[in-house]
Design brief:
Largest sheet: 2 strands, antiparallel
Mean pLDDT: 77
Strand order of the largest sheet: 1-2
Number of strands: 2
Order of helices and strands: HEEH
Distance between the termini: 64 Å
Number of helices: 2
Radius of gyration: 28 Å
Low-confidence stretches: 1-6, 9-14
Number of domains: 2
Shape: flat
């Protein structure tokens, strides 16, 4: 099957919408270069870096995200109260 002849819609959805082989654009008629998996993964790298930077900034300066508090919370003074669960009787047959 000639992918260039039939356009991008044939078997292009194997990796979502990125074509693996060159194909013709239906509107302009120009040939579109294929997109490799490596290009897709490298496109995500800047966003992962931004997330890492924001996590580091949040850990370094917690007042950035806790500005509504009058003072920073002390993790040692936090007490969690878990209510008692009712007991259930199970009859075995």
């Amino acid at each position: 099957m000639d992918f260039v002849k039939y356009g991008c819609d044939r078997k292009a959805y194997l990796r979502s919408v990125a074509a693996r082989v060159p194909c013709l654009d239906r509107i302009t008629g120009k040939q579109i270069a294929p997109v490799t998996s490596g290009q897709i993964y490298w496109g995500a790298v800047p966003f992962v870096c931004i997330q890492l930077i924001m996590v580091i900034l949040t850990l370094s300066f917690p007042q950035m995200v806790m500005h509504y508090k009058s003072e920073a919370a002390n993790p040692g003074s936090i007490e969690m109260m878990i209510p008692d669960l009712p007991e259930f009787e199970v009859e075995l047959k």
